[in-house]
């Protein structure tokens, strides 16, 4: 999900600090945690900091999750979708163990435990978006991944009581004593400009 806003952060950083060389690596949570544990990264941004990693997770900005459908879906016309109506729909979801899958499962289980009509599993947010656009089902997804599609009308947000679910994006520094001055400067810049780098969304 971070790939949808991380390049903008790098671009803003390079304008502010042209002498600092920034390399961006995008990966899933497991890959980034392993890279941090091997001290391959100076800083990382993630939504679910590992409990075992001995570094301070500093909150940056909200990370909203919503349910999306294509523009022709019957529920798209409902000003407020009854929660129970979601159980009659097929959900397109990420693989088991993903943060979004966990959130979606918890939310649906609150409505009716293990009662959703069907689940189609896909391995990336891009394939989930395309599946929903083409009518395969509906999906819970990070709002940051679908900002363009919502703006263009290719996807719509279903208004459901209890949504959006808000989590946080966190900045995690590498816990090393010999941290370079440039890394400290970048870390401080990101924290000081969280309101600038936060993706723009209207979820009112």
TrEMBL record:
SUPFAM superfamilies: Periplasmic binding protein-like II (SSF53850). InterPro entries: LysR_subst-bd (IPR005119). It holds the Pfam family LysR_substrate. It comes from the Eukaryota. One of its GO terms (molecular function) is transcription cis-regulatory region binding. One of its GO terms (biological process) is regulation of DNA-templated transcription. Keywords: Transcription, Transcription regulation. Gene3D superfamilies: Periplasmic binding protein-like II. Residues 2-194 form the LysR substrate-binding domain. Belongs to the LysR transcriptional regulatory family. PANTHER family: HTH-TYPE TRANSCRIPTIONAL ACTIVATOR CMPR, HTH-TYPE TRANSCRIPTIONAL REGULATOR. This is LysR family transcriptional regulator. It comes from Phaeodactylum tricornutum.
């Amino acid at each position: 999900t971070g790939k949808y806003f991380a390049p903008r952060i790098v671009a803003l950083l390079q304008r502010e600090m042209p002498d600092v060389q920034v390399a961006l690596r995008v990966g899933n949570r497991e890959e980034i945690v392993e890279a941090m544990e091997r001290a391959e990264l100076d800083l990382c941004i993630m939504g679910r900091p590992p409990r075992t990693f001995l570094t301070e997770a500093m909150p940056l900005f909200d990370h909203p999750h919503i349910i999306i459908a294509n523009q022709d879906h019957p529920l798209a016309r409902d000003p407020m979708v009854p929660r129970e109506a979601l159980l009659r729909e097929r959900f397109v979801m990420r693989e088991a163990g993903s943060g979004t899958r966990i959130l979606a499962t918890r939310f649906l289980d609150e409505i009716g435990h293990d009662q959703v009509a069907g689940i189609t599993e896909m391995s990336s947010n891009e394939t989930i978006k395309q599946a929903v656009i083409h009518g395969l089902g509906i999906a819970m997804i990070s709002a940051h991944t679908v900002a363009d599609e919502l703006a263009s009308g290719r996807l719509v947000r279903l208004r459901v009581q209890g949504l959006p679910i808000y989590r946080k994006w966190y900045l995690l520094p590498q816990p090393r004593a010999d941290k370079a001055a440039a890394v400290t400067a970048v870390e401080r810049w990101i924290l000081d400009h969280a309101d600038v780098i936060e993706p723009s969304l209207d979820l009112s």
